[in-house]
Amino acid sequence: MRFGLSRLILLLLLPLISLPGCEQPQVEFVFSKKTNELIPEAAKPVKEALVRQFGNPFALTQFPELPTEFGDIPGVVKTVEPTGKDQPLIRFEVTGLTDAYDKLQGLPLEWTSGKGQGQVSRVKEYNFETGMVAVDKSAEIDPQPGDTFLLKCVRLQYGRDLYNRHCMHCHGMSGEGTGPTSRYLNPPPRDFRLGIYKYTSTKPTNKAQVDDLGRTVKEGIAGTYMPSFKLLTDDEVSAIVNYVIWLSIRGETEKKLVDELFLDYSNKAMAERTSKDGGETREEVLEELKDFMEEDFPDTLEFATSSVSDAWEEANLEDALVIPRSARVADTPESRERGRKLYLSEKTKCASCHGPQGRGNGTATQDFWTNPATNEKYPNRGLHDIWGNQLPPRDLHRGIYRGGRRPIDTYRRLFAGIKGTPMPAFGGSLSDEELWDLVNYVMSLPYSENR
Ligand code: HEC
Ligand code: HEC
What CATH number is given to the structural domain containing 137? Predict the structure, then answer.
């Protein structure tokens, strides 16, 4: 029963997505809007590189040096079924997969001994009860009893199935945030592809820790449609988080690649470059692109993936954590009063956003702001996040803390800000005592007399 729903979803999806004659479902990760705005000659290698490095939802791929835990499982061939000449698949019975999850279809199977050593097959069929595996027949491999292999991405695939079952309808198949339920929600489900998370325990420039994402999944985000998944086991949560991070790495790698190409090789750039009198010809631009692809693209790809993976690894080091330098200042009327003064001061400008009374109605909500990504003014008044959504400053009287309601959570929010939003980081400009005074003041507001 455990995987019943995901099977059902898959069955429902199959008729929509499988091409006639293909035995594997052809579901693809979506590409970003910007990728699709590149000229086709530039978009193609970007898309191919992403498929090579990450695969597709039902044929995941891994490459070395990713910080996520894929869970490779070793196995041994026990017997091989005789096959006729025209049979496309070769079937063999395996042992050693006792710890594996029961759905292995689509996984890469890397031969670690025998004729095919070093070759990678894809699991086409797997029968949990009989232990029979089927892969494509090929000249390079010839499984024999005793041959060993590694099944790759087992844990990643487990996370994918749980994600597709619990999260996809809001966060989308590729983590792009536009699942079928998403359009009714405000704030909308997060697009994971920017690799930015709001409620972290880490410093302003760091990504989230694995534990931060785990907490978000377990607790949900108060005051939003992000539900709490308290009924999932710790193991399930960790597998899902692993997959979310992987989707995030894929998305951010794509973004970095496209950012590198966009200025010169978008459809718009091409039109501009070739329209001017005495401008370039299309052939000249393509020639230049070809040189870039041959000389620089491999390094660009390598740098994009490794810098994103490194950033995830760094976020999980002790050093990335925001740890108060001193214990919480006692929550006294004096401390709250010092906090109130700071709150109203020019030094913090809290009131310009949250309002003098903390009701979320500061003057900043009346201004037209500029989108830093495009340098254009937003069509609506008020603050926005980097995903382009309107974002009112919180009404601090409500006592809703999306990043957690412990004093340390609010301390971290003030120290590191809320990433991807205009809520600034104050860790660099305020002392620890000042931060704690502010925590004491802010957390007293829901109980204050002028409520
Ligand atoms: C009913 C819709 C819905 C479902 C289902 C859902 N989410 Fe969310 N999720 C949201 C919304 C809405 C937000 C944005 C909240 C915000 O911006 O404050 C969000 C935000 C997040 C974030 C960002 C947290 C941060 O610190 O920025 C993560 C991670 C996340 N969800 C993971 C998941 C996972 C994993 C699942 C499945 C186990 C899931 N969500 C299921 C709606 C949903
Ligand atoms: C430039 C505008 C701006 C300034 C200045 C600002 N904030 Fe915020 N603040 C926001 C926005 C916007 C949010 C909501 C973010 C979200 O929901 O994603 C927020 C959210 C918060 C939250 C909610 C945290 C949570 O876990 O839900 C607290 C508490 C907070 N701000 C306190 C402060 C304090 C105290 C100051 C001054 C030291 C301050 N803010 C300065 C814009 C601002």
Answer: 2.40.10.190
